[in-house]
Design a protein that fits this description.
This protein is of the alpha+beta class. The protein has two domains: 234 residues, Antithrombin, subunit I, domain 2 (Antithrombin, Chain I, domain 2, 2-Layer Sandwich); 92 residues, Alpha-1-antitrypsin, domain 1. Helices cover 30% and strands 27% of the residues. The strands form two sheets. A six-stranded mixed beta sheet has the order 2-1-3-11-10-9, with helices on both faces. Strands 4, 5, 6, 7 and 8 form a five-stranded antiparallel beta sheet that branches. A hairpin with a 3-residue loop joins strand 10 and strand 11. Helix 1 crosses helix 4 and helix 2 packs antiparallel against helix 3. It is globular. GO terms for molecular function: serine-type endopeptidase inhibitor activity. Belongs to the serpin family. This is Serpin-1.
Amino acid sequence: MMILWMCVVAVTLPVFTNQQCLTKDDSKPSTDPQARLALFRGQQEFSLAMLQTVNHMYPNQNIFFSPHSIYQAMLLSYFVAANHTEASIKKAIFLPKQQDKLSTMQAYRLEKFFQSMRLVNGSDSYELRSANRLFVSQQQKVKECMLELFKDEVQQVDFAKSAESAQVINQWVANQTKNNIKELIPEGSISETTQLILTNAAYFKGLWKSKFLKSNSRKEIFYINSSKNAFVTMMRQKGTFNHAVSEQLGAHILELPYKGDDVSMFVLLPPFASPSGITNILKRLTLKTLHEIIDEDSMIPRAVEVSIPKFEVEKSIELVQILTSFGIDMFEDTADLSSLTDATGPRVRFTDAVHKARLQVDEDGTTAAAASA
């Protein structure tokens, strides 16, 4: 888990006097010191809820997705929503009731600033990036204050040229994910009535702190559970890694750090004889137990013989049913998405939400990419 130690940084929001985009009085600058922490906590809670929901919907399938990417897309939806739709999204993405939209925007901009600094400073050990885009129909007039807030994210396109518009969006996603995610927007999904497509693209590439030797990799039986197995390439190494046994989760926990020690993969292994081991772990996994897992004091360095599969997986998920189950009404005919544009253009509606993610784990490290729209 990435941990950022930061000095005091001031990110100033513009003061609006003519239009009130986010609150009833945007002229009052927000200085909530807890807003960024609340946003981070909200993303963690949303991630756990998504994981449990998707696992429940697809109990017999391998699941892979990026909660971060989906959360970013939902955060954009929250910013463009108003009234009852804004309230339903705010609750679903676990933002505090007392935190107003202006404070959340400040936290969003602060996180965006830190990400830009990470990209500028760079790292020889890993690459981590995430970008948002609001593709807006040329039929719409974006409010001036929202253009100021989202000057890096707003891009107006001619959705009447459906094939060209899809190509523009898909190419942007491909560029952000280094061609790991292609064709996010399917052919025929855009028409001249399309008014807005909110998009996130995320990418990660990290090298293991302790690489697996390719000479040690070989085809072996991988036990999915006590009654199912598959023949896969297994990577092996012996070394000292942080390890713990959680009675609360009913699982062995192993931390595999990437170079730089800022980011790690955590492997949760259920008992071999349990046919529903993963499901049981997810039911018990809460924000509290998650924090206990990533707490350095809870893990003990010890000699471990590691054996994990070498694999590559790509998954697509339709999000409408999942997000609706969270109580979000943004896909309803009565949804209010009026915060981004003025009333002169056609009414803005969301009719679909898609997500695609790709993961590759090999002897050198991990490459992961995801996109949501």
